[in-house]
Amino acid sequence: MRLVLLGPPGAGKGTQAKFIEERLGVPHISTGDLLRGAVQRQTALGQAAEQYMTRGELVPNDVVVEMIAERIKERDCLEGFLLDGFPRNLTQAEVLERMLVSHRAQLDHVVSIRVHPEELIRRLSGRRTCRSCGAMYHVVFNPPKQNERCDRCGGELFQRDDDREDTIRARLAVYDRETAPLHDYYQHRGLLRSIDGEGTAEAVRSRILAVLDGTQ
Ligand code: AP5
After folding, report:
1. What is the pTM of this model?
2. N or C: which end of the chain has fewer CB within 10 A?
């Protein structure tokens, strides 16, 4: 199955993608994670991306498109994949469509997760991530048992640079301007499935699974 998860920053794309990856056995490809990895390693791609990410802007299309084109050519993507954070504007959506045609493949669903802006800000400003294993927490909704330490591996928890309130607001504005038009794009292609992203992570997961199982 080939899926795209759409939704504003903090909608829960990363949280839900981990469940879906296990359930469907297809790789979770997060452009944000790939870019943050490149920034951490200070590769040429990471250096090109860093300034945009810190400001909450989109990284230029050519950088991201090349990264995704390489990733979906890998063997583990032959039977499908779950894209989280790509496409993020109309140009990227059109490029993805052309890439899939060249692989004689197509998307099965585009799942859009809807959450109110105040809730997005609450979620992002409390997010913490494990530096070692990438596990995600929230200081209120899903706190670690031990302060600032990962329950799974004991690694140090950190707050993302772009989770400061001013940068969160910039990211939400970019989403409205650049990414929200993709709803119409995928609606016209009959692929869009929109779900309510409020409530517990388990409740949201059930709604997504209902879409994937064809019962909603
Ligand atoms: P990216 O990493 O993709 O960030 P994002 O889209 O802004 O999404 P987030 O990771 O912030 O949120 P999420 O929806 O995954 O929520 P999560 O599950 O973590 O991109 C970062 C940057 O990279 C971009 O700004 C851009 O610069 C660049 N970039 C990436 N892709 C690009 C592209 N294609 N083109 C150009 N540039 C690109 O959850 C958030 C918090 O809420 C967590 O603490 C979680 O525990 C909590 N939570 C989740 N679900 C619930 C729930 N149901 N109830 C309560 N809390 C919840």
Report:
1. 0.95
2. C
